[in-house]
Amino acid sequence: MPASWIQQSGQFLLDLLLPPRCFHCEAAGSWLCDECFNQIQFIDTAVCHRCGTPIDATLKCQQCFIHPLQYIDGIRSAAYFDDNPIRSAIHQLKYRNHKAVAAVLAQFLADTVARHQLAADVIVPVPLHRSRQKARGYNQSYLLAKHLGDLLNLPVNTTTLERTRQTKSQMSLGVQERRQNVADAFAAHNNRLAGQRVFLIDDVCTTGATSDACAAALKAGNAATVWGLTLAKAL
Ligand SMILES: [Zn+2]
Ligand SMILES: [Zn+2]
User: Fold this and answer.
1) Ligand closest in space to the Cα of 208
2) Considering the chain, what is the average pLDDT of its residues?
3) Which of 56, 193, 213, 232 is the most exposed place for a label (fewest CB within 10 A)?
4) What pairs with residue 163 in β-bridges?
5) Average of pLDDT values for 139-167?
6) Which CATH number does the domain housing residue 216 bear?
7) 197 lies in which domain range?
């Protein structure tokens, strides 16, 4: 039996047996306590209409003037990455398979959809490469997508978009390097999303390069529109 399966089942049982504790400060009573909820800086100001970066008065941010995203209709993020509760939430989602956290976070994505009045027919999580998913045992973006699908009553598609090659971590790369790193890393495996409006789900957006590369593949598969939704925006 693979270790990741045992780990996952163990975590699942713990989630069931233990009373909920705040994923940030560990206070008992709920998965996210009121105090930590109030610390989250949601993005509720004007944003760049393309990449979702908070801005003052213009329609586009500087990055979108210089290196515009090419395929995605736009990206919207729920909160700033720079604050602790969101950072711990994403960490737990990514490395500890904390499924209850995914439910709390999916609500933030649903609120973002409502705030920006976005519409879609189907939800697609940004896929991990097969080998990465095997090692981790699950895809954190799928957990978010699944809960968001429940909230919005939309189906989740995981059979069309695939990551065709491994990519380096985007962390230390600049804007152009990030694009080169993920260029052609995704492909549409079939035409099940032809004519469909897609919400593409990822945990963090930095420059939008990954979402844009996914949108290129989805549009090559004839998706009608692709809106990126991410939990956090790293500036
Ligand atoms: Zn707390
Ligand atoms: Zn922008």
Assistant:
1) 2
2) 90
3) 56
4) 186
5) 95
6) 3.40.50.2020
7) 41-233
